[in-house]
Amino acid sequence: MKEQDMVQVDRITLEKIQFGIQQMMSKSLMDEMRYESREDIETRTFIKQLTFYLWGNKVNVEKYDTEKVYPATMWEELKRDFWPIWLRRMFPVRYSRDVTHHKEIHWHVCPHLNCKDDRKHLNFMMLNDTKLTVEDWKVHKGKIEGAIKDYLGQLSRVI
Fold first, then answer.
1. Residue 129, in any domain of the structure
2. Conformational region of residue 87, where left means phi above 0, alpha means psi within -120 to 50, and beta covers everything else
3. Structural domain of residue 127, as residue ranges?
4. Who wins on pLDDT, 68 or 54?
5. How many domains is the chain built from?
6. Helix/strand/coil for 112
7. What is the rounded CA–CA span in Å between residue 159 and residue 24?
8. For residue 85, what is the enclosing H or E element?
9. 93 assigned to some structural domain
10. Phi then psi for 71, rounded to 5 degrees?
11. Cα 127 vs. chain centroid, distance in angstroms?
């Protein structure tokens, strides 16, 4: 390390910042939950894992392929980039391709389904009905505004 890379510090003040995670869960969900905590020796960190089940309905399954095409060898890449067109017509560039198959499963999951028999939740699960009534919108709007205010309050404390 060179002398100009060295930094001399007489005093520095650091701030301890608290982080937390909060999730609301029903009593019936908590009864079926499994909690696991372990220490990872390599990274010297703690790993905490929550496992639980929710009722859900599979809405649709999307299957698609992605294809990546590239020159087969380094020589083929040099031919593609630097040879004149007439020479490439005589000795065409060979390509390789990789095809990756993807499968996405979309679920409708409702954690409130096991709390009480509410018709709106069942309609959402069975009929894919996502229309909200005016009363529902007011409740959701209030929750969103409260979450935004909490988030901005946390940011102002950090800054």
1. yes
2. alpha
3. 25-54+110-142
4. 68
5. 1
6. coil
7. 27
8. helix 85-90
9. no
10. -60, 145
11. 26
